[in-house]
Amino acid sequence: MKIIVPMAGMGKRMRPHTLTVPKPLIPIAGKPIVQRLVEDIARVCGEAVDEVAFIIGRFGAEVEKSLVKIAESVGAKGTIYYQDEPLGTAHAILCAKDSLSGPLVVAFADTLFKADFTLDSSVPGTIWVQKVEDPKPFGVVKLNEQGQITDFVEKPETFVSDLAIIGIYYFQDGEYLRDELQYLLDNDIKDKGEYQLTNALENMKNKGTIFVPGQVTEWLDCGNKDATVFTNQRYLEYLKERGEKLVADSATITNSVLIEPVYIGENAVITNSVVGPHVSIGSKSNVRDSRVSNSIVQTSASVLNAAITDSMIGNFA
């Protein structure tokens, strides 16, 4: 199994945090968003992941090393590809054409999820979906009586379905996907000026490929600051439920109260403060004489004599 992760976007809705680090490397409960994503997909796949291919912008050598380490953390090889122009989702995936073979999962890197199913690799394709109250901002799928996907509808003006596509897809045949994506580019087939994955999916369906939905129990968006803070909140709850250790042994906590769930990173220092609930404090950060709730404090940051809630504090702030 391979995991293909397009993540070349500039993350403009997350500025100023993405001026120094790509959005998928912003931490959720102490780990980068993209690492959480890769680990959760590996858990759901039910089989070994042998390669993780990242499609990125020119983010620099340090980012690339971090991504390769993320792949290695799930026992896979890490491969780096570049998308130098934002030409759409189909184009982004095709930038990794040398890795598009065999069974694979495509996962866009601004989504996390909670799921209680194991991927069925015997079906030709699975589109991961979640019920939403207002489907208008999303691509949605329609199902027939057999539970198979019959239509892909992008941002419907009138109601056709409440099953929104969350940006994670399983393909049994990576070569077939590659060829359908290449067809779009070769024939300059665009939607709203870009090469779109949904056009390739529609072509595959029309040729007889059966796609089924994989419904997640919770879909967590990391598209902007508020969504990312909320995702951190929910993820801390998941980790608490799983019994994971959230406070590093090397952290120094003096005359302070931690209201669970909180994540405290390596060598963080908390003094005369109340931290939590739903707070992530990055490694080597310093919180003193402060009250912090429902927030993300990244690495080597200082929070002094402050009351902070619903916030993100950047690295070295």
Can you summarize the main beta sheet?
A: 7 strands, mixed
Parts with pLDDT < 50 across at least 5 consecutive residues: 13-19
Number of domains: 2
**Beta-strand content estimate:** 25-35%
Shape: elongated
- The Cα radius of gyration reads 20 Å
Structural class: alpha/beta
Task: Assign the CATH architecture of the largest domain.
Answer: Alpha-Beta Complex
Text of the CATH class of the largest domain: Alpha Beta
Strand order of the largest sheet: 5-4-1-6-11-8-12
Output the CATH homologous superfamily of the largest domain.
Spore Coat Polysaccharide Biosynthesis Protein SpsA, Chain A
Descriptive notes:
The protein has 317 residues and is of the alpha/beta class. It is elongated, with a radius of gyration of 20 Å. The model is unreliable at 13-19 (pLDDT under 50). Helix 1 (33-45) packs parallel to helix 2 and helix 4 (174-186) crosses helix 5. Strands 5-4-1-6-11-8-12 form a seven-stranded mixed beta sheet. The protein has helices at residues 33-45, 61-73, 89-94, 174-186, 197-206, 225-241; strands spanning 2-6, 27-28, 31-32, 51-56, 77-82, 104-107, 111-114, 125-131, 139-143, 149-154, 163-171, 211-215, 218-221, 252-254, 257-258, 262-264, 269-271, 274-275, 279-281, 286-288, 291-293, 295-297, 302-304, 307-309, 312-313. 23% of the residues lie in helices and 31% in strands. It folds into two domains: 2-226, Spore Coat Polysaccharide Biosynthesis Protein SpsA, Chain A, CATH 3.90.550; 246-313.
